[in-house]
Amino acid sequence: MDKETRMQFYNRDVDNSLGTMSQGHPLAEKAQVRQINLIDMAYVIAHYRRSIVRFVTLTLILTVILFWIILPRWYKSTAVIMPPKQKNSLSLLGSFTRAASSLRSLGIGGLPSDDLAEFQTILLSRRVMEDVVRKFDLLTVYDLDSIEKAVKELRSNIEVTRGKEDVSLEIITYDTQPERSAAIANYLVEVLNRVYIELSVAEARSNREFLELRYKQNLADLRKAEEDYRRFQEKFKVFSLPDQMKAAVTAVATVQAQIALKEVELGVLSRSASAENPERERIQYELQELRKQLQAMNDGKPNEKFNFLPPLARTPEIGIEYIRRYRELEIQGKILELLMPLYEQARIEEQRNTPSVIVLDRAVAAEKASKPKRLILTIAITFCSIILAVLFTVYRNRARVLASSLSTEELNKLLFIKQEFHWKRLLR
Fold first, then answer.
1. Which end of the chain has the lower number of beta carbons within 10 A, N or C?
2. Contact 133/120 with Cβ under 8 angstroms?
């Protein structure tokens, strides 16, 4: 069947449809919204198949030219890094591990996840981006006229993501040359290590200065506490208050027992001896001396035999004062014990210049391009062009059929609308 015969069959089918609607059929007024069945659609596609094939072929050619010839291919390179297991070398020493772990807020020590977050921030910072732009002359590579635009373009070609279980960091770079892509990724690791060491040293210097001031202040406070404790000991003859108080109580009890015994002896002797009896006078003298000794012990003025005992009358006052002095001395000693290793650690960290980034995998030049996905995009665009061409063909045929059923007045209105909304008229 040649083309003219097919057109005759097609026009006859359309005329029959229009003639049926014009014969007063009850559904004649709804003919403009008649649904197109599958046979009608297949018929239209078969009739305009050459137009559809030409459109799809043209789209395929343009797609191939665009994705396979014009657009550059981008190569992907990946470098994998990890934070050091021990950020501080001195943290391995058991002498102050507990102290260092308790003061992470000072910036000494940290968790791997914190280091990864710092790595991400440093890698995407403007400072690092500008360094990379200058290193590889990306203004010329990207054909840009300002470093601001080059930094923005470079950021769009870099991805910094965390690896599995947040223990590593992947630095992914894209470039039109595989060697340059790998070089940029490896250089980012170098810049990261350099900047991270610089920031760590600056942080350690700040910590060292703070700890040094606090350390010196602690030494002065400790010296003052020691002097106050020494003067207190010299004043009250207190060296070990619990032991001395126990000895004092024992001594007082002994003296009181002797006084009681002498009083009993004097009472017995008073019944049988006169007041001038030498034995009675001796006992009275001894009793008098024992009472003086007891009074002296209570007043804090013991004789040479008990000069190491604190005065019992001032025991509460001495006890409170002793606790205060001893507590202040212990507190300053504990602070010194805590600050000394941290201060020494900060001093060493300030001088540290060892790598802080562990390179697990260096970036290598890719053998195949990673984007754009040319084959997938070509297939997808071709498939979409087929659907678009079919839909447009069916729509155009449907519009022609509906236009054939319109009256002369309605056709004139449609023509007027088309003329008024023409793009040339709209731009006037």
1. C
2. no
| Residue 351, SS3 per DSSP | helix
Using one digit for the tens of pLDDT, what is the confidence trace for 366-401? 888 888 787 888 899 999 999 998 888 888 777 777
Record the tokens describing residue 76, joined without a space. Answer: 């992907």
| 3-state secondary structure (DSSP) of residue 421 | coil
Sheet containing 169-175: which strands, arranged edge to edge? 158-162, 169-175, 75-82, 358-361
Residue at token pair 């260092």: 100
With residue 105 as reference, give the H or E element that holds it: none
User: Tokens standing for 74?
Assistant: 């981008």
Q: Which of these, 118, 124, 207, 192, lies nearest to 363 by C-alpha position?
A: 192
- Residues 255 and 294: beta-carbon distance below 8 Å: yes
DSSP 71: S
Per the listing, tokens 């060697």 go with: 179
Residue 248, burial from CB neighbour count under 10 angstroms (0-12, 13-18, 19+): buried
Q: How far apart are CA 178 and CA 40, in angstroms?
A: 54
**Which pLDDT tens digit goes with each residue over 118-152?**
899 999 999 999 999 999 999 999 899 899 999 99
Dihedral, CA atoms, 308, 311, 316, 322, nearest 10 degrees?
-30
What does the block give as tokens for 51? 């137009």
Residue 234, classified by CB atoms within 10 Å of its CB into exposed (0-12), middle (13-18) or buried (19+), is exposed
Angstrom distance (rounded) from CA 392 to CA 44: 11
Q: How many residues does the chain have?
A: 428
One DSSP character per residue, 13-56 reads HHHHHHHHHTTT-TTGGGGGGPPP-HHHHHHHHHHTHHHHHHHH
